[in-house]
Amino acid sequence: MLTEQNYKDGQILLIDKPLQWTSFQVVNKLRWLIRKNFGIKKIKVGHAGTLDPLATGLLLICTGKFTKRIQEFQGQAKEYTGTILLGATTPSYDLETEIDKTFPIDHISEKTIHETTSLFIGEIDQYPPIFSALKKDGKRLYEYAREGETVEISSRKITINEFEITKIKLPEVDFRVVCSKGTYIRSLAHDFGKALNSGAHLTVLRRTKIGSFSVEDATTIESFENQLCPKIETT
């Protein structure tokens, strides 16, 4: 059982983030649980890499002195699995917004899908989604998007180390990606659809690894709470 001092000296907590939770909500929940359990007013808690609310999977939570190592962990390669739906786009590139355009997919074969992944391997230029938390002129991009404002977004260099198609059941395509910090899998899905002369958006996303850390070793928020504050059984 970890002590108050253990958390202050620094811990890396592997959390399997549930669907619909923001990364910030997970941090707040764990901070509250630690403070409540030990009866303390302050404890530093932060995450090493945001996951969208519609994504699940590995979230690295650092406590105490280990919050100083957050940038170190953020810079490590990440692995994701998920599903891309071909033949339709959404403004957010995922399920946050409704489908705005549809496209034919009759010309797309399994061979073409596998071959097209090679276009994205290595260092590439990627445009972040307009529905993202990146800031421009002190304002989040998604705020501009929700207000219907058009803003110019600059591309940035990212690296895709691996892009593997794991299952094809059109219009759905399952994948596994290993990529650098700053990669938007939603943008990859969108660009993949364009490269196939169609359209696409992300419907499922799960982060499975950050560096040497794996979601297989992660715990749920409920399990963490039960370990930290075991419920007393009454007879």
SSE layout and pairing:
Blueprint (H helix, E strand, L loop, with lengths): L3 H6 L2 E6 L5 H16 L6 E3 L8 E8 L6 H5 L3 E9 L1 E2 L11 E2 L7 H7 L5 E5 L8 E2 L2 E2 H6 L9 E14 L2 E8 L5 H11 L4 E11 L2 E2 L6 H8 L7
Parallel strand pairs: 3-12
Antiparallel strand pairs: 1-3, 2-3, 4-11, 4-12, 5-6, 7-10, 8-9, 10-11, 12-13
Helix pairs in contact: 2-7
Protein described:
The protein is an alpha+beta fold and 235 residues long. Helix content is 25%, strand content 31%. It has seven helices and 13 strands. The strands form three sheets. Strands 1, 2, 3, 4, 7, 10, 11, 12 and 13 form a nine-stranded mixed beta sheet that branches. Strands 5-6 form a two-stranded antiparallel sheet. A hairpin with an 8-residue loop joins strand 2 and strand 3. Helix 2 packs parallel to helix 7 (221-228). The longest helix is centred in the N-terminal third of the chain and has 16 residues, at 23-38. It starts with a helix and ends in a 7-residue tail after the last helix. The model has no long low-confidence stretch (mean pLDDT 92).
Summarize the structure.
By secondary structure, the chain is α+β, with helices and mostly antiparallel strands.
- Gyration radius, in Å: 20 Å
- In total, how many beta strands? 13
Termini separation comes to: 25 Å
The helix content is 25-40%
Put simply, the count of helices is 7
Oligomer: single chain
Shape: elongated
Low-pLDDT segments, ≥5 res: none
Strand/helix succession? HEHEEHEEEHEEEHEEHEEH
| Average residue-wise pLDDT | 92
Largest sheet: 9 strands, mixed
Overall structural class, as computed from helix and strand content, comes to: alpha+beta
Strand proportion: 25-35%
